[in-house]
Specification:
By secondary structure, this protein is mainly β. It is 2% helix and 56% strand. It is built from one helix and 14 strands, in the order E-E-E-E-E-E-E-E-E-E-E-E-H-E-E. The strands form two sheets. It has a seven-stranded antiparallel beta sheet with strand order 1-2-14-11-10-5-8, with no helix packed on it. Strands 3, 4, 6, 7, 9, 12 and 13 form a seven-stranded antiparallel beta sheet that branches. The relative contact order is 0.29.
Length: 165
């Protein structure tokens, strides 16, 4: 296989594109995600909007499938969800800052993760207080693999932009 990652940085905008090409003579499956760890000033004053009514697998509850009833995701404890067929555009809203627009194409899922105050204590590469300043919002193909036929390519992208979409 051949994999290419393209990163484009412009004023107020970051675009990441992942292209995977099957150079084999047989079809094969793959899954993947862009691990977008976002810095926030205070997770308690931050929300992720745009997922209301979207079905997700809750990794903190044996992958139980739930439909998100809330108009925004708020973090106060460990959260580890794979949103299935979510909207292509989400907004990270922090008190006192312009919204961060999070768009994706090609990826079928969105992973939302924060270790919370307990799990973070088991992570060697993250100081205990840092869960309060981060949120991972990943464009992903996690719930089902992409199947690539010989010679076929797949492209997925994520665009982060400040302000209006």
């Amino acid at each position: 296989f051949l994999t290419q990652l393209t990163v484009t940085l412009e004023a107020g905008r970051l675009a990441i594109a992942l292209q995977v090409t099957n150079t084999d003579t047989q079809a094969w499956p793959f899954t993947g995600a862009l691990h977008s760890y976002l810095h926030v000033d205070d997770i308690a004053k931050t929300e992720l909007a745009g997922l209301q009514g979207t079905r997700y697998q809750d990794a903190t509850a044996d992958n139980l499938e739930v439909i998100d009833p809330d108009n925004a995701v708020r973090i106060s404890a460990e959260l580890d969800r794979v949103y299935l067929s979510p909207p292509a555009s989400l907004q990270l809203v922090e008190e006192g800052k312009p919204a961060l627009q999070i768009g994706k194409t090609g990826f079928t899922d969105t992973v939302v993760w924060n270790p919370g105050p307990e799990l973070v204590q088991t992570l060697r590469d993250m100081p205990d207080a840092d869960w309060q300043q981060m949120l991972c919002v990943e464009a992903a193909c996690a719930s089902a693999p992409v199947i690539l036929q010989p010679g076929e390519s797949w492209i997925g992208s994520q665009v982060l932009s400040v302000g209006e979409p």
